Amino acid sequence: MLDIDVIEDPAAAAAALEPVRSRLLAELSAPASAATLAGRLGIARQKINYHLRALEAHGLVRVAETRRWGGLTERLLVASAASYVVSPGALGPVAADPERTADRLSASYLIALGARVVREVSDLLRRSREADKRLASLAIDTEIRFRSPAERAAFSNELTRAVTALVGRYHDESAPGGRPHRLVIVAHPTPNETSRKEPSCQ
């Protein structure tokens, strides 16, 4: 089972987002049979089997084990991953694209950048898995509490200067065998109960 899988196919995304099937994927973090799932969810086994077949057709679940009970064969199914993300690419031409957002300081642009990260990294990860290689990547996640909007602006300016200096030091457009890497740095207010109800405009 993968830690995380990115769903690229629109039909697979629709299957995973259907409420009963989404619940089945959560239940199938460990192998289980249709009869077991029917008991847990209080749904007829025939309906469970219908939903499982749809998930299996899209590669979201697979057979983990088969058991023989008399003349019957019981299949134990397991989800293909512990969690899932739907790629923006599943939306086709209406998927978010930072190139179509003019305001580089807007929240819309930040979201579009996030969508591009999911789309690009998921494709790279798929290819690295196929080649049985590890994908080199870096992620830094931290939280900072600013005393004032002025200090937030000062931090942004200092960070911009630091990143610009590092890029200037290490970037080599003509390096033989070099490979471009995308660097994305974002900052946004940390969600809490208050900000969910009333977005901060500062």
Automatic annotation (TrEMBL):
One of its GO terms (biological process) is regulation of DNA-templated transcription. It holds the Pfam family HTH_20. This is ArsR family transcriptional regulator. InterPro entries: ArsR-like_HTH, WH-like_DNA-bd_sf, WH_DNA-bd_sf. Gene3D superfamilies: Winged helix-like DNA-binding domain superfamily/Winged helix DNA-binding domain (1.10.10.10).
